[in-house]
């Protein structure tokens, strides 16, 4: 999902912004690509979530 509108509004009022994204499926779009299973997407989301949580915890300690 896009957060462009929210970031534009925040920048308009002078708020700093940080955006994070996690890719949970390959989505190469090639003609032979098979859809990823929901299990694979959820597993990738769990891995990404743990990594983002660790990143944010480290960031907050440094602020």
Name the quaternary structure. single chain
Number of helices: 2
Poorly predicted ranges (pLDDT <50, ≥5 residues)?
none
The helix/strand series, from N terminus to C terminus, equals HH
Radius of gyration: 16 Å
Coarse morphology = flat
The helix fraction, in percent, is 40-55%
Strand content: under 5%
Number of strands: 0
Largest sheet: none
Descriptive notes:
The chain starts with a helix and ends with a helix. The chain has helices spanning 4-12, 38-62. The protein is built from two helices and no strands. 54% of the residues lie in helices and 0% in strands. It has a domain at 23-63.
Outline:
The chain is mostly helical and 63 residues long. 54% of the residues lie in helices and 0% in strands.
List keywords for this structure.
63 residues, mainly alpha, 54% helix
Present the secondary structure layout.
Blueprint: H1 4-12, H2 38-62
């Amino acid at each position: 999902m896009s957060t462009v509108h929210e970031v534009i509004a925040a920048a308009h009022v002078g708020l700093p912004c940080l955006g994070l994204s996690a890719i949970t499926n390959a989505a190469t779009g090639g003609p032979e690509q098979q859809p990823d299973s929901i299990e694979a997407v959820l597993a990738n989301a769990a891995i990404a979530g743990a990594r983002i949580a660790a990143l944010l915890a480290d960031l907050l300690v440094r602020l």
